[in-house]
Write a structure and sequence with these properties.
Helix content of chain B: 10-25%
Helix content of chain A: 40-55%
Strand order of the largest sheet of chain B: 9-6-10-12-13-14-17-18
Number of strands of chain B: 23
Oligomer: heterodimer
Number of domains of chain B: 3
Largest sheet of chain A: 11 strands, mixed
Distance between the termini of chain B: 60 Å
Number of helices of chain A: 29
Chain lengths: 775, 431
Amino acid sequence: MRVIIVAGLPRAGKDSFARELPWKKIVYSELIRAIAGIHDVSDKKELGKIADELREKNGREYLTRYALAIAEEAGEDPIVLVGPRTPEEVLYVKENIPEHTIVWVDADEKVRRERGANPEREGEDIERGLLEIRKLADVIVENNGTPEELKEKAKYFVENAEYYLIGLKSGIEIHQQLDTRKLFCSCPSILRDDQPDVVVERFQRPVASEMGTFDPAALAEFKKGRKYVYQAYSDTTCLVELDEEPPHLPNDEAIDITLTFAEFVHAKPVDVSVVMRKTVIDGSNTSGFQRTMLLATNGWIDGRLSKIRIQTICLEEDSARPIERGEEKIVYRVDRLGIPLIEIATGPDMHTPEEVKEAAERIGILLRATGRVKRGLGTIRQDLNISIRGGARVEIKGAQDLDLIPEYVKNEVRRQKGLLEIREEMERRGIREENFDQPIVDVTDLLEDTEAKFVRSTIKKGGKVLGIRVPKMSGLLGKEIQNGKRFGTELSYYAQVYGKVGGILHSDELPKYGISAEEVQKIRERLGCNEGDAFVIVVAPEENARKALDAVRERLKMALHGVPEETRGPNPDGTTRFMRPLPGAARMYPETDVPPVFITEERLRRIRGNLPPLPEERYEEYRRMGLNEEQARALIKSRYVFLFDELVGEGVDPKIAANILLTFLPYWKRQGWELTEDQIRELALGYNKKYPKEALDEIVPELAKGKKLDEVLKEKGIEMLDEEKIREVVERIVREFREKGEEPRMNVVMGRVMVELKGKAPGKVVARIVRELLQ
Amino acid sequence: MPEPGDVVEIRKNGVTYRGTVLPRTEEIPEDVLVIKLKNGYNIGIKVTPDTEIRVIERGEPPKKYKAPIKVEYNPDLPTAALVATGGTIASRVDYKTGGVVAEFTAEDFLLSFPEIADLANLKLKQVSNIFSEDMTPEYWVRVAEGVAEEIKNGVDGIVITHGTDTMHYTSAFLSFALQNAPVPVVLVGAQRSSDRPSSDAAINLLNALNVAVNSDLAGTFIVMHETMDDRYCTIHPGTRARKMHTSRRDTFKTIGDIPVGRSYVLARAGKIEERWVEIWGEEFRKRGQNGFKLVAKANPNVFLLKAFPGLRKDVFERILLEHDGVIIEGTGLGHVRQELIPSIAEATESGVFIGVTPQPLFGRVHPHVYSTAVKMVQAGAVYLEDMLPETALVKLIWALGQTKDREKVKEIMLTNYAGEITKHSRPDAFW
C-alpha cells in the first residue's frame, strides 16, 4: 500500500491541498466522529477531547492504524490521510509503510490568521505535537499565495507522486568560474594549448592530524608513490600557482561578484570570512590544498512546492587541469589553477527529476545575471546528490549538460530501487557475506581455443582468465538497474577502478561474445558452481585480474547492505558509472598566509546599490523593447544576454539583435559556422548598414574561417548602396523595359534589379523603390 | 562570553550559526567571535547587542597526545644527531581548531618522515626554539656547543634544523667555530611550512641526513632544494651560501664559487628507492680528519654597513666609533664616498677593525685599482678579498670574540678557514 499524509497547522491549507488529490482520503476528524459514533459534534474542542481519549486508551498511533485498516479492507491504493495531530500517527506510517510521503502544508502565521486561524485551538494541537510532524515531513508545500497557486502545486504533486512516494531527495552543488583575474594572484584566468615553458616536478605527502593519524584517502594516494608534474607559462602564470610564493590578498572583484549572487538568492553574508585550506589528495593543487572561503549562507530560490534552500555560497580556487594521468605520474597544467569559482550548495530539497534541472538552470541564470561569469564549455560544473528512501547518498560529479540532469536523476532512482530489490531477493535466498569468500580459480586453459578473439589475444600476451563462483546469485547479475545497464555492470565498474581491467564477464550474460555454452559449462564445473550459482570471470594480466575479482567480491558483499555511498561519473547516455567511494568530510584548516576578509556594511551597501537587473526585470525590459514573449524568455536564459544589451546600447535594433542571437546563430552553428563574440558584434552593427541582410549566407561562412567582416565584404564585393544609387539602377532597368516596349511588371523588375545588385541592396528597399517608380 | 572549544549557537539577523568557538588570533578584533562550522569553514561573527549566543556544550580539555608509533634502534644504520633550533619541522594539524602543533620527539619525526628509518638512527637535541630572525650570536655559541658535544659522542653526522632567513649566518659561524670537524654538519630548513602536503621539508631533511651520514665530507654545509622541482638538493659550502629569494624552494645559492655537490634521495610511498651524493669540488675536507677543536667565541658588538650614495657622514662616523669592528659593503671594487674616508682613519686609530667586502656579492674587492681604495687602505681599512659581506660580519664577531688585538684580528680575517676566501676566481662561479 502507498500512503500520503497531508498535515499542517489550522488554515495552512492542508484540506484544500488534499481536495486536489485524486485518491481516496481519510480525514482524521471525520474518522474520530465515525469511531465515536457521533455525527453532530460541531464543537471542535469536544472532538479533540474524544480523540485524546481514544489515543490514551489504544495507543497514540491508534487513529492511523484504524485508518490504514479501513483502507486495506476497501482495497484503496494510494490512500491519503489528512490532518494527523500527533507525531506517533505519522511515525507509524514512516516505520511500517515503505512507499509513503509526509506532506506538510505550510503558511506563515500572519497569512493563517488572516484566513481565520484560531490561536487557542492551534495551541492545543501544538501541545499534541503537531509541530513535531513538520520535522518528520518529506515534502513542504508553501501556501502563502492564492488558491490557484495551491491547485497548481497539488497538480504538480499528483503528476510526480511516483517520486514523492519513494522519497527522492536531491541537492546540487554548482561550480562556476568567474570572469576575473585569479583569486590569489593577478594572473589572467586563461587556458592555453601552446607549449608550456616551465615544468616542475613535485611529490606530496599527507600531514598528520591532531591525533597523529592520517586521512585514509590521503594515505592511499601517498602509497601510490605518484609524482606530479606541473606545466606553467612564464607570462601568464606565476610563482603563486607553482606554490613558490605565498598567496596574494583575495581578489576583491571576485568577492563582490559572489556577494552579488548572494543578494540574488536572498542569502546572508557572513561578517568575517576566514580563508580555509581544504585538503586535496590527487595533486590537482600544487599546495596540496584548495583555498576556499564561505561568504554567505541561508539563501533560497523558488522550487515547485516550496523554497529550495541555498545553504552555502563559497568562493574558492579552481584546480589545475589534468593533462595526462598515469600510474607513475600525473601531468597537470596550472593555467586553470586559481581561477575563482563560486560554489553554491542547495539543500536536499528537490524531489523530482525536473525540479533538479530547474534549480540548476535557475542558479545558472542568476549566475549569468551577475554579468561576470565565464561562459563556454567547462566553465560551469554541476554535482548532483541523490538518494531515495532506504537508499544512500550518491554524488554524480561533473554533469555538464542541463538537459541530461533529469535522466541522471531518473536512472539513479531506478538504480537505487533496483539495488534495494536485489538486496531483498538476496535476503530471500538466504545469502550472507561469507558466501562470497570463494577462491579465485585459474580457468585460462579452458578458454585457450575459444572463439572469443579478445580472450585468445589476451592469453597469448601472457594474460590469464581468472574466475570466482558467486553462490546463489544466478539471475541477479543480469538484472537491469539503469537504462541498458545491469547489476553486472556495477561489478564491472569496481573491477575497472580497482583492477584497471576492461571489465568482467558473468554467467547471466554468457554464452556470448564468442564464448560457447560448452565453455561456460566447463567453467561452471571448474569453479564448482551449483544450480542457482553465478560466476564472474576476468580476462587480464594476472595481478590486475586478481585485484579486479577482489573488488567484485567486495561489491557483492555491499549488495547485502543495499546502496553504497558513492561518487559516480556521468555517462553521455544519462546513466552513471562508479568512480570512487564517497569521501569523508572535507579536512579544513585556516590559510594562515591570508588575513580574514571583513565584509563591511559599506561594502554591502555599495553592492546592493549596484545590483545588475534580475532576469525577471530584464524580461520586462525586453518586452517593452518590442520582443515577443518567446524571444524575451529565451534571451534571459541565453549566454548572449549581455551581448544583446551591449548591441542594443550601441544602437542595434532590439528585434534585429534578438534575431541574430536567437535564430541566426543557432542555425549557423548547425552549419558548422562558429563565430566569436567580436564577430557577432561586427555583424550586428553592420546589419543592413555595411551589407544587406541577403548577403549573410555569403558572409558568415567566411567569418567562420576567422576573417574580419571588412575583409570578407571587400573580397566578395559586398557593400550597401545608398538609396540614390539603387534608384538610379531601378530607373535604368525600368527604362530599358519601356524602351523594348515591354511592360515593367513589379516581379520581373524586382528580379532583374536584385540580380544586378546582388549583395549590395536589401530587398525591402529595392521593392519599395520599384513600387514607387512603377506607380 | 563562551570559551574556545565550546559549542555554541549564535542567532543574528534571523540566521542561526552553530559551531565550535576558536581562539582569537591577532587579526581578529575583540568584538568578533570566530567559530568553526560543522562543514569545516571558519567564520567570524560580529557580536552586536541583538546577537544571541547560547553555549550548547562546554569544550573539553585537549587530549594528551603521544605519537602512535615506536622507534627502534637499527644497528645496521649510521646514527645522526638532529639538532633543532626552532620552527615547525614535524607538525600536526588540529582539524578541530585549525591549529598547527609542532612536535619534537623522534616518534614525531618518524611519523611525519617514515623514510628516516631507511637512512639513520636519529638522536634528537633541541638547543633553542626560536624563529631564525630572533637568532643572535649567543645562540650560535649554544648551537656550536651542542654540536661539539654530539661530535664528541661519536655520531656519524649532524643535521641542524634552522629557519631559512638567517641560516647562512649560523652556517658561517659553525664553519669557523667547529674547526676540523670530523663529520658533516648540515643545516637544513624549509621554504614551505611542514603543515602542508607540498612542503619541501621532507625532501630537504632526507637529503640533509643523506649528506650527513652517507657522504665523505667533513665541515659545515647547507643542503636545500636545487631547483623548484622536488628532485635534487644542492650542498652549499657553509661560508658561501646565501638566501637569494624570499619564497622559492631553491632560494639558497652558492655565491662566488661552485657548490660542493648534489644529493639525491628518491622517496616514494614512505620508502627510499634510490639515494646518492655527488661531490663536485676537490678541495673539501674528508670525513674522519683529526684535530677537532671548538672555538665558540663571539663578540656581537659589530656592524654591517652598506655604502650607498648619500650616506650621511655623521651617521657613518658614529657607527664606526660605536662598534669594535665594522664590515663595510663597499660599492664596486670596495669603495665609500671619499668624504667619508677621514672617519675611517679616525676609527681605526681608536682601535676599530674595519673590513671591506664586495657589495656586488660576486667577485673580489681590490685596494689598488682606484685612488679611493688606496686612500681607504691608508686610512686603515682591511680589504677582505672575495669574502661575502654576511660571512665577513660573522667571522669578525668570531675573531673579536677571541682577541681585542687589532693585528691578530686582521690576521684571522685574512686567513682562509673554511672556503670564505678563495684564491682562485672560477670563471664558472657567476651566473
